[in-house]
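Batch manifest, entry 17 of 40.
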Amino acid sequence: MNLRGFQVFEPIPEVNDPLVSLSDLDALAELVRELVNTIMTLGKRGGSYAELEVRETDALGFVRQAAEAVAKDPYAGALSLVEHRGPSSKQLRLAIQEIAKERLPNGQRSAHRKELEKRLAETLSFERNQRQLFQRDLLQFTDLVHAFFERLADYLPTSVGGRASGPQLEGGVLFAVNPALRWETVPPGATSLTVRMVGPVRFALAGHEIAIMGTGPSRSLFVGDHEVAVQGRMVLDLGRAKLSVFSEGDYVHLRYRDEARSLAVRLAEALVVVFVLADRRREDLLTVLKVLASSVQGDPQDLVSRAVARANSVSARAPNRRQAVEGLLRGAARAAGVTLDDNAVLGLVQRFVDAMTVEASDLSNLVERVPGADANVYQLTGEPLTIDVGAQKITVRQYRGRSRDTQESLVAMLPGQVLGSFTDYLIAPVGKGTVTLVRGEQELVVLYVPDLKTGDGQAL
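Output type: structure tokens
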């Protein structure tokens, strides 16, 4: 795998380039989507650059090498986007040499020479400064490319050279061939499952009665007032929830997402993440969560969400839910080869149970359990919201996705810095503490804990 013949013909755009806005979230998201699509389809028939002979497992590395090559020549052979007006130092030296050959009076030749030498000194200073700035830019661009692709590798599957597992379906499989995956009935509390179509089927998922009728390409799905043909991917709007459906062959996967979860439920889940990240052995805790969530990769927020959903589903029928959750966590720890102390296990169990059983009215009780927390609730009106957190000002803006089926997000920003975007909650370091932003239907809870440290002494 190499890039022989690769050359940069176009320099990177300027900050104020009229054709691309690198401060616009839509534009940045589109760039990332295009890049991911290129990696996932590189060299494949009908994909991007199908004529390239690149193995699928080398796709990420190939694109990364191309990005590193651009980072080493960001201005397409020039030292800067700023053009130097006038002759170069090489041209000026040649002009000085030519003066001696010209038939000019000595005084005129001397004056002309001094003028050229002055311009040469100024040009040399400019070029020296440009080279220094260029080297600084190279280091900065190289570091940014490295950081970006290291982060991207965590989200791309190993099939293209990333570190994430391949696509995984949550929940069990109704009527599965494999006994280890088989569900005979859908357990209470389940929010996702895969159905092996062996005939017409009816079941309840997250309180909704669902039926799939027909055979082969003529199958139809019925839920509430909806009747839709089961073909490929689709998202059904169920009022304040969405049902995602994906079908292939004789299998149909369904995933229910309640987008109107109460503030208390979302805060309780966020507090699980805060607990994990603040623990001195957070890497061990994350490893345990990966086993429980059946995922080899994922950010802490995604791992916690999957792990809580799994624990909720498995412990739904248990006579003692707390004991069932503790057993799950200790079993996952043994499977991961991790030894956890009792305080870590019991603390995690308590927060798991809170996330699974909390009521909307329990919001204040949850906040009171976080020592030293400064909590406030703000109304979301659609207008930018500026709040004081840890002696700094955070601005929260509403961000609408392009697709009708894409949930609205909130974007939190410090002056000159984007903290992140979120639909449920965001946890980020601010000042000498950690802020947790939790979104409700019309409200935003802001929880700030000063001096919240991880095991390595760093703020979250």
